[in-house]
Amino acid sequence: MQRLFAVTASAGGSPGLAAEVIWSDDGGATTEDTSVTTLAANEDPDDMACVGTRLVIVSNESLSLHHALIEDILDGTETWAEVATGFVAAKGPNAIFSLGASFTWIVGNGGYIYF
């Protein structure tokens, strides 16, 4: 089984649409999408990574990270949660890299590295 995940930017305008995760659990033969409900329509995601059993999206505009269980995304039953603590103001997240649930790095403005 080959799983693929991609994240889109939010769509401005009226009405604005939140960012979406586009995913496939069959190597891209078919795709589905779901809205990242914790990101506002004017907040773009910057990067994402699979961290353990969760898909994690970071957003400099929201100064936070957003996560949901991967299996729930694939089942269409996900609940997104936002974590807006732990980031230094003006040093928000830009990129994320993970080697597993215990080894995840987030790069922020000004050379900040969160681990």
The end-to-end span amounts to: 30 Å
Low-pLDDT runs: none
* Class computed from helices, strands and strand pairing: mainly beta
Strand percentage:
35-45%
Question: Strand arrangement, largest sheet?
Answer: 4-5-6-7
Give the strand tally.
Answer: 10
Count of runs of 4 or more consecutive helical residues = 1
The whole-angstrom Rg is 14 Å
- What are the secondary-structure elements, in order, as H or E? EEEEEEHEEEE
Helix content: under 10%
**What global shape is seen?**
globular
Which whole number gives the mean pLDDT?
A: 93
Largest pleated sheet: 4 strands, antiparallel
Structural features, described:
The protein is 5% helix and 40% strand. It has 115 residues and is mainly beta. It is built from 1 helix and 10 strands. The protein starts with a strand and ends with a strand.
Write the layout of secondary structure elements.
Layout: E1 4-7, E2 20-24, E3 32-35, E4 47-51, E5 54-59, E6 64-69, H1 70-75, E7 81-83, E8 93-98, E9 104-108, E10 113-114
Antiparallel strand pairs: 1-2, 2-3, 4-5, 5-6, 6-7, 8-9, 9-10
